[in-house]
Amino acid sequence: MVGLGLAVAILVAALDQLVKLGIVALFADRPPGYTLDLTPFFDLQMNRNTGITWGMFNNGSTTNALVFSALAVVVVVVLVNWLRRVDTRFLAVALGFIIGGAAGNVIDRLMDGSVVDFLDFHLGSWHFPPTFNIADSAIFLGVVAMLLDGLVFRRPPRQAKEPGDLA
Q1: Mean pLDDT, to the nearest integer, of 38-52?
Q2: What is the 3-state secondary structure of 4-21?
Q3: CA 83 – CA 4 distance, rounded (Å)
Q4: pLDDT score at 62
Q5: Is residue 167 part of a domain?
Q6: How far, in Å, CA of 73 to CA of 86, rounded?
Q7: Cβ-contact 120, 131 below 8 angstroms
């Protein structure tokens, strides 16, 4: 399952980076804060986030990029170790989504000191908390899938046949 999870992670990180390159190119000649209206509930608006989820700690600090990158790397290492013990495809894919999303955002932080966010969903004048990106979406979907796996698709625990079997 490690191969599946890591393949998903690589695909997610690559897709995230590719889309971000396209967004940066699309908005290169546009003024800051420019919004590209696509539907009555969805826009593209490029923002650079130096903080974490929903723009918290978004103060432009270089220290933020390093601290948040280091934390994400620790999380990725923990998740890869967990992935080595996973025995279902569903959970391997879920972990792959989270690992790939974290990696995509770490790449941004290390390359530019900020994360490119651009997806803006809204209902009238109410906007879903700040813009987000493919990596953030993958992390969210991976966490939801992990919760489903643990709460809905729960399997009975393995039973030891002899002492030490589960160690």
Answers
A1: 86
A2: HHHHHHHHHHHHHHHHHH
A3: 10
A4: 53
A5: no
A6: 20
A7: yes
pLDDT of residue 160: 59
Per the domain annotation, does 166 fall within a domain?
A: no
Q: Which residues are catalytic?
A: 117, 136
48-105 tens-digit pLDDT: 887 655 454 445 555 555 676 788 788 889 999 999 999 899 999 999 999 999 999 9
In a domain, 80, yes or no: yes
Q: Which two tokens stand for residue 81?
A: 């170790």
Number of domains comprising the chain: 1
Range of the domain at 17: 2-151
What is the rounded CA–CA span in Å between residue 10 and residue 72?
Answer: 16
CA distance 156 to 68: 37
Q: Do residues 43 and 123 make contact, with C-beta atoms less than 8 angstroms apart?
A: no
Q: What is the 3-state secondary structure (H, E, C) of the chain?
A: CHHHHHHHHHHHHHHHHHHHHHHHHHHCCCCCCCCEEEECCEEEEEEEECCCHHHCCCCCCHHHHHHHHHHHHHHHHHHHHHHCCCCCHHHHHHHHHHHHHHHHHHHHHHHHCCEEEEEEEEECCEECCCCECHHHHHHHHHHHHHHHHHHCCCCCCCCCCCCCCCC
For residue 44, being part of any structural domain is answered with yes
At residue 49, φ and ψ (nearest 5 deg) are -105, 115
The chain-wide mean pLDDT, for the chain, equals: 85
